[in-house]
Amino acid sequence: MDRQIQAPIDKETARSLRAGDYVKITGTIYSARDAAHKRMIETLERGEELPIEIQGTTIYYLGPSPAREGRPIGSAGPTTSTRMDKYASKLLDLGLIGMIGKGKRSPEVIDAIVRNGGVYFAAVGGAGAILSRKILSSQVVAYEDLGTEAIRRLEVEDFPVIVVVDSQGNNLYETAAKEWRTAE
């Protein structure tokens, strides 16, 4: 099914998405990679506030290349998601609703997605130049010293993703592999 959704994503919308849905996201999402995730968890462990509102937020696992003249961001392809798995469950429990990346997720993260009514999306790896055209603005909002791994607020329009793991725990990577084996 093709869906148009608004970010931040509300729980009802997240719960209505199904593994395999093609989705276009419009609104505000954030970028963060491993170093930023590590720093967010360290911030929480010190009892401090996160630098972004995590409730209802979608994080894109992204470390963009420098922007060309006249563009808000450079190539914007997804980073491998497993690198964030040791941090994702905690953020999901605090209200993170969506994650965008590429590749599989750990059983612990899938459990946290189900427990919290979240969703894991995949963006097409290798299509960073095309994906960057769907990013209207990019502003560093935290951890500027991390360079490309700083947290950025991104305004996106019709940003194309596929639901990989839905709020019920359905996993497109597993179901697609089973279908392919059956077709053989």
Fraction in beta strands = 25-35%
How many separate helices? 6
Q: Reading side by side through the largest sheet, how are the strands ordered?
A: 2-3-4-5-7
Q: Whole-number radius of gyration?
A: 16 Å
List the helices and strands and how they pair.
Blueprint: E1 2-7, H1 11-16, E2 22-31, H2 34-45, E3 58-60, H3 85-93, E4 98-101, H4 107-116, E5 119-122, H5 128-132, E6 135-142, E7 151-165, H6 172-183
Parallel strand pairs: 1-2, 2-3, 3-4, 4-5
Antiparallel strand pairs: 2-7, 5-7, 6-7
Concise synopsis of the structure shown:
The chain has 184 residues and is of the alpha/beta class. The chain contains six helices and seven strands, in the order E-H-E-H-E-H-E-H-E-H-E-E-H.
Task: Explain what the structure shows.
- With 184 residues, the chain is an alpha/beta fold.
- The protein is 29% helix and 27% strand.
- It is built from six helices and seven strands; from the N terminus they run βαβαβαβαβαββα.
- It has helices at residues 11-16, 34-45, 85-93, 107-116, 128-132, 172-183; strands at residues 2-7, 22-31, 58-60, 98-101, 119-122, 135-142, 151-165.
- The protein has a five-stranded mixed β-barrel.
- Helix 3 packs parallel to helix 4.
- The chain is globular and about 45 Å long.
- The model has no long low-confidence stretch (mean pLDDT 94).
Features:
five-stranded mixed β-barrel, 6 helices, globular, 29% helix, 184 residues
